[in-house]
Specification:
By secondary structure, the protein is an all-alpha fold. The chain contains seven helices and no strands. The protein has helices at 3-16, 18-27, 33-47, 55-68, 75-85, 89-103, 105-127. One of its GO terms (molecular function) is 4-carboxymuconolactone decarboxylase activity. Pfam families: CMD (PF02627). Residues 35-117 form the Carboxymuconolactone decarboxylase-like domain. It comes from Roseinatronobacter alkalisoli. Keywords: Lyase.
C-alpha cells in the first residue's frame, strides 16, 4: 500500500471510527477494491488529511455539499462523524441553512430531518 493509503486509512478511522471502517473493510470485495483504494487515498489520504482547514470546517463543508447535491445516503454517516470532528449540532444546522439558501429548501429540509434522527440515535446510544 502507499503512504497516501496508510494516511487515508488512519484519517478515515479517526473521523468515522474503527467500527464503521471495520464494517466497510469486511464488506469489501475484489470488485470494489479499486474504488475503496481510490476513496481511501483521494478523499481520506488527500482531502481530509490536509491541514489547510480544520476537521470541524471540513465536516460542515462535507455535510453541506452532500445535502446540496442530494447525496442523502451519506449524511447520517457524516453526522455520526461530527462526534470526532468537533462540528456541533448548531454548526450542522448553520451549514444546512446555507444549503437552503443556495441549493434549495427541500434539500436542506431533508438533510435536517436526517440529522435530527441521527443525532437522536447518537444521544440514545450515549445514554444506554
Amino acid at each position: 500500500m502507499t503512504n497516501r493509503f496508510d494516511t487515508g486509512m488512519a484519517v478515515r478511522r479517526s473521523v468515522l471510527g474503527d467500527a464503521h471502517v471495520d464494517r466497510a473493510e469486511a464488506a469489501r470485495s475484489d470488485l470494489d477494491t479499486p474504488f475503496q483504494t481510490l476513496i481511501t487515498e483521494g478523499a481520506w489520504g488527500t482531502v481530509w488529511a490536509s491541514d489547510a482547514i480544520s476537521r470541524r470546517e471540513r465536516s460542515m463543508l462535507t455535510l453541506a455539499l452532500l445535502a446540496a447535491t442530494g447525496n442523502f445516503e451519506e449524511i447520517p454517516m457524516h453526522i455520526r462523524a461530527t462526534a470526532h470532528t468537533g462540528a456541533s449540532q448548531r454548526d450542522v444546522m448553520e451549514a444546512f441553512q446555507h444549503v437552503a439558501i443556495y441549493a434549495g429548501v427541500p434539500r436542506a429540509n431533508h438533510a435536517i430531518k436526517l440529522a435530527k434522527a441521527t443525532f437522536a440515535e447518537m444521544e440514545a446510544a450515549d445514554n444506554a
